[in-house]
Amino acid sequence: MADHDQPPAPASPGAALVQLGDVPLADLLAGAGDGVLAHVLGTLATDDPGGPGDLSAFESSF
Amino acid sequence: MPAGAPPSAARPEPVRPRTAPAGAAGPPAPAQAPAPRVRQLVLKVHGRCNLACDHCYVYRHADQGWRQRPRVMGPATVAKVADRLAAHVARHRTERIRVVLHGGEPLLAGVAAIDRTVRTLRAAMPAGTTLDVAVQTNGVLLDERFLRLFHEQRVDVGVSLDGDREANDRHRRHPDGRGSHDEVARALRLLGRPEHRPRYAGLLCTVDLANDPVRVYDSLLEFAPPRLDLLLPHGNWSHPPPGRRPGGTDTPYGDWLVAVFDRWYGQTPRRTGIRLFESLIALVLGGRSRTQALGGGATDVMTVETDGTIEGTDTLKITGEESTRTGYDVFRHSLDEALRHPSLAGRPTGPAALAPACRACPVVSACGGGLYAHRWRAGHGFRQPSVYCPDLFRLVRHVQAVVAADVDALRRRATGSGER
């Protein structure tokens, strides 16, 4: 991209870079099959935003 | 900085005065923020290792504090850790807490010591708190005796493996130079048996540019891991990772990760979880990260060394001793006191922790500045882009494009506006 192009608007933390749009997540999931994206969409559907999640301390290892 | 360029193309952020000296309380958290708490406690049950991996941050990087500490965490220290942890979860009404038995090599502590440690921790937990326990091992000592214990005590097992024999033994060697792959493979075949598989947490693999990415991924799949963690080798602007030219625009690690991502993402049904990639997909869709390497979330990991010393995220060892030395220990201080230290919850998080160039970056919501330890530059501190900035930028953009195309296809399918 050239220097004189308009820079893209910064996305604040937590902002989606890809919008799911107004289609219900369940409808998207229904056609998603059993691949990686379906799995992640499934976790999004069940994620508790205030919960502890499953952050890894394993990665604290070398 | 050109538009669309990663933030590392900007000049480094000048050093700012520390908000608090090491060992003192950090800046107060914003009034509306939830009280910081420990979600995961990394317990160094043994301070030495039976391997001599040349990429290990514990023994080969700046902080050499392990030399002064006892080899094994003694019963009195474990008991004090249990007391402190119980008080902490009771105060915060924590429903779930995780302890990771770590080292060095934790299995060097032996079956009896690990049994005693887990029993002590479980006995101290207040009613209503679930204690999840995991162990991260190099696998060399993993046998039926340990696995029997891990079933009895409900301990999940993560094993470190860098790929096939050639890839793994490039770094993961015994002190006499022998590779460890064959022993680890034997352990993984044991762990993968149906009777043991419920305790199999996953594999941890450190990326090495000398190893072919797809071959590494395929070789790890042979052990049918429930989950993979791909780690970038630890480094920073002052001690750069192998093959990473600080400030350069090349993306060797980004290219490596993209190759694995494409292989993994293209496999249907999904063969395994890769935490880094699943977190990134979730983040580009507005969800949450499950790795400290992305997303810029608050730190909730605390480390207790074999002598009871409390430290922050273990990976900060690569920046030197001052970054992790809190001056706190479990004998004199509560976990809440220690949390205030700048290497723990007292450190800035979110946008305040980022370099100005990162705050203006179009992918900051997914990258989050990368792993905190990878941002450090001597004389400038942590408010810098990651030393891996161009690689992260490349990976995020690639994943964003792949996910956008697939979400668009799903949306058209769901609304009947596209081909079936």
UniProtKB/TrEMBL annotation, chain A:
NCBIfam families: FxSxx-COOH
Name this polypeptide is given: FXSXX-COOH protein
Top-level taxonomy: Bacteria, Bacillati, Actinomycetota, Actinomycetes, Micromonosporales
Gene: fxsA
From TrEMBL, chain B:
Keywords per UniProt: Iron, Iron-sulfur, Metal-binding, S-adenosyl-L-methionine
Residue numbers spanned by region Disordered: 1-35
Composition skew (Low complexity), residue ranges: 17-26
Domain Radical SAM core: 33-275
Residue ranges of the TM segments: none
GO MF annotations, alphabetized: iron-sulfur cluster binding; metal ion binding; oxidoreductase activity
PANTHER family in the cross-refs: ANAEROBIC SULFATASE-MATURATING ENZYME HOMOLOG ASLB-RELATED, RADICAL SAM DOMAIN PROTEIN
Protein name: FxsB family radical SAM/SPASM domain protein
Organism: Micromonospora costi
